[in-house]
Amino acid sequence: MMRVCIILVGLLSLLSIEAYDVGLTFLDSAVAQGAVCLDGSAPAYHMDKGFGAGIDNWLVFFEGGGWCNNVTNCLARRDTRLGSSKQMLTTETFSGMFHNKPKYNPDFYDWNRIKVRYCDGASFTGDVEEVDPKTNLHFRGARIFRAVIEDLLAKGMKNAKNAMLAGCSAGGLTSILQCDNFRSLLPSTTKVKCLSDAGFFINAKTVIGTSHIEGFYADVVQTHGSAKVLSPACTSKMSPGLCFFPQNMIQYIETPIFLINAAYDSWQVKNILAPGVADRKGTWRECKLDITKCSSDQLNILQGYRQEFLKALTGFDNSPSRGMFINSCYSHCQTGIQETWLRDDSPLLGNTTIAKAVGDWYYERATFQKIDCPYPCDKTCHNRVFE
Ligand SMILES: *[C@@H]1O[C@H](CO)[C@@H](O)[C@H](O)[C@H]1NC(C)=O
Ligand SMILES: *[C@@H]1O[C@H](CO)[C@@H](O)[C@H](O)[C@H]1NC(C)=O
After folding, report:
1. Residue of 265, 266, 346, 372 marked catalytic
2. Is 121 left (phi over 0), alpha (psi -120 to 50) or beta?
3. Ligand 1: does its nearest atom lie under 6 Å from the Cβ of 184?
4. pLDDT tens digits, residue range 196-225?
5. Residue ranges of the alpha helices (H) in the chain?
6. Is the pTM of this model over 0.70?
7. Which ligand 1 atom lies nearest to the CA of residue 70?
């Protein structure tokens, strides 16, 4: 009993070192510009100030959480933490890429680190003036993006030496779609780069060969009026809905950018490859929850998905300003938690942790463009198991 207690206390203290809490700042001044969450509430972010040599360095990270594609689905999220700052938890755990200790985060620990809460439902791209009084839904993600950046500029980012736009999942898509816009909002003297964690969503068919994500993204862009912030080089060639896919616009990005993604991204497998509408009988249920439960037929389909993922990456040329860490794990978002960012047992690619690959690329100590061997070759993965 005593020993169990000691082990427990040991584990708890380990956890408390690996992560710490940061409070929530509401951006009330943004409301006057109509830069608001789905329900009309103020946007919000968590900020831990830079210090020492990092005082003029800024990491601006956008949270993810899927998308809402039409009024029905946006209404369903309006009064949740993903649609309203009134529902958000007032503290957030900082860990991994957000950590303030060099041991856990050697290259960014002393930067100003900001995690922006997701509450617009369209990866911070929406801008619709009208508000339907019946639903009171606001589609204003692009205004939130701008208001947050302007607020941070006023708080000192206007003097930034280094700045990085980052995000995971729907926020990882923000850091791709808004990368050049971010660059244009910062002083020309600032070194600006973008980092997308699990934001490279591909336009793939479902397991039964139907088109699902393509129509869903078209609805997101239509509902939120997102076309205006998307790459003009892309929207002059194809529909704005297609320009929401990184594979169709990433070649036009001029700012240095780094992609971290699992080729078998667990969100994509669950929602692009085998969404409920394409798996009525639930054949994929167990496999989606735990990749070790997939049948050999399902694994073959997953290998096909990886091939499509790698094909979608071909527009991403190998200029040294671009980095990629494409591992073969069953995961989704690997920067914001210590175990996948930097720890003794973290995922490796080319014997390199994500923290080191990103730091080397940002500071130009080395380039990093690597694609893992196919599942299950990589023994360093932290494969997700869902309940
Ligand atoms: C909203 O989108 C969902 C998911 O794609 C779909 O099932 C539903 O029919 C749509 N509702 C409306 C009113 O278009
Ligand atoms: C991987 O890196 C570790 C620690 O830096 C080193 O000890 C080891 O020799 C490397 N392994 C290979 C195969 O390069």
Report:
1. 265
2. left
3. no
4. 999 999 999 999 999 999 999 999 999 999
5. 2-18, 71-78, 141-154, 170-177, 179-185, 213-224, 232-235, 246-249, 266-268, 285-289, 296-312, 338-341, 354-362
6. yes
7. 1
d(CA 66, ligand 1 centre) in Å: 15
Residue 352, Cβ density class (10 Å: 0-12 exposed, 13-18 middle, ≥19 buried): middle
Please tell me whether residue 305 adopts helix, strand or coil conformation.
Answer: helix
User: Residue 332 catalytic?
Assistant: yes
Closest CA to 20 of 153, 160, 157, 115: 115
Q: Is 216 in the pocket of ligand 1 (CB under 6 A)?
A: yes
Cα–Cα separations (whole angstroms), residue 214 to 220, 271, 387: 10, 12, 28
Amino acid, single-letter form, for residue 223: T
- Provide the pLDDT for residue 13: 52
- Ligand 1 atom with minimal separation from the 215 CA: 5
Q: Which residues in the chain come in under a pLDDT of 70?
A: 1-16
Active site (annotated) includes residue 265: yes
Q: Is 223 in the pocket of ligand 1 (CB under 6 A)?
A: no
Q: Minimal CA–CA distance to 321: which of 273, 286, 366, 378?
A: 366
The token pair at 171 is: 């926020």
What distance in angstroms lies between residue 168's CA and the mean position of ligand 2's atoms?
A: 28
Q: 113 and 61 in contact (C-beta within 8 Å)? A: yes
Q: What's the length of the chain?
A: 387
User: 354-371 burial, b for 16+ CB within 10 Å, e for fewer?
Assistant: bbbbbbbbbeeeeebbeb
Residue 387: what pLDDT?
Answer: 85
pLDDT at 2: 47
Q: Using an 8 Å Cβ cutoff, are 112 and 60 in contact? A: no
- Residues 62-102 pLDDT 10s: 999 999 999 999 999 999 999 999 999 999 999 999 999 99
Q: Go through the domains of the chain in sequence order and give each one's CATH number.
A: 22-371 (3.40.50)
CB count within 10 Å of CB 219 equals 16
The residues, ordered by sequence, that sit 6+ positions from 373 with a Cβ below 8 Å of its Cβ are 328
Mapped onto helix, strand or coil, the DSSP state of residue 254 is: coil
